[in-house]
Amino acid sequence: MIGRLALALLLGGTSILHAQATSTASRAGDLQIGLGYSTAKPDYGQQSFRGVTAYVDFDRHAHFGFEAQFHQVSSTNSDNSFQRTYEVGGRYFRSYGPFIPYLKAMIGRGDFNYPFGLTDLSYTLYAGAIGTDFKIGTHYRLRADYELQSWSGFSHGGLNPQILSVAVAYHFSGKNQYK
Predict the structure, then answer these.
(1) What is the C-alpha to C-alpha distance for residues 100 and 115, in angstroms, rounded to an integer?
(2) With 0-12 CB in 10 A as exposed, 13-18 as middle and 19+ as buried, what is 59?
(3) What are 49-58's pLDDT values in tens digits?
(4) Left (φ > 0), alpha (ψ -120 to 50) or beta: where does 117 sit?
(5) Which domains does the chain have, with CATH numbers?
(6) Which of 94, 106, 162, 161 is nearest to 132 (CA)?
(7) Could you tell me if 122 and 113 are in contact, meaning their C-beta atoms sit under 8 angstroms apart?
């Protein structure tokens, strides 16, 4: 009788046992942080700008994620002009082996420092981008990104800078759930 009771408790209790703790079996999403080099056509005068880009991607679902991005590009001549942008938005991506192409739609704020420090003004901007990440092992990504911005309210017929960036990112997920 005691043997049957022990066997019934043992077999009946298996439904509450887990092979893996719940906190490690699932997670909120994928995170990557990147830093890179940018070159830009500022759409102001006949010059080019160069600088840095930084970004954070958080992918909550397969194929859809969120990105926050920063660009600081400065004039290549000595007129002290620059464009600085802060952007947030969504991205759609797919994985094809080591390649992860994506599209982004962003909104943000752009600061424009006019040549020779004449004035520094801020504008709302909208941006669209296309690019790809390339997986290098479990934790690293290379990125190539092309972005077209539209700065609203900019005088002299508007401002539509184009930015080309190359970056390296650290990917914090070891299991590659979404990528």
Answers:
(1) 38
(2) buried
(3) 999 999 999 9
(4) left
(5) 28-171 (2.40.160.20)
(6) 94
(7) no
Buried b / exposed e across 157-174, counting CB within 10 Å, b at 16+?
Answer: eebbbebebebebebebe
Condensed to tens digits (0 to 9), the pLDDT of residues 34-92 reads 999 999 999 877 788 999 999 999 998 889 999 999 999 999 887 888 999 999 999 99
What are residue 90's DSSP bridge partners? Answer: 66, 105
The dihedral of CA 100, 103, 106, 110: what is its sign?
positive
Q: What Å distances lie between residue 144 and 4, 38, 73, 77, 160, CA to CA?
A: 66, 10, 17, 25, 20
CA 59 to chain centre: 9
DSSP 8-state secondary structure symbol assigned to residue 16: G
> Are the beta carbons of 127 and 90 closer than 8 angstroms?
no
Question: Token pair for residue 59?
Answer: 């992918």
Kindly state the helix (H) or strand (E) to which residue 149 belongs, with its residue range. strand 140-151
Amino acid in position 138: T
Length of the chain (residues)? 179
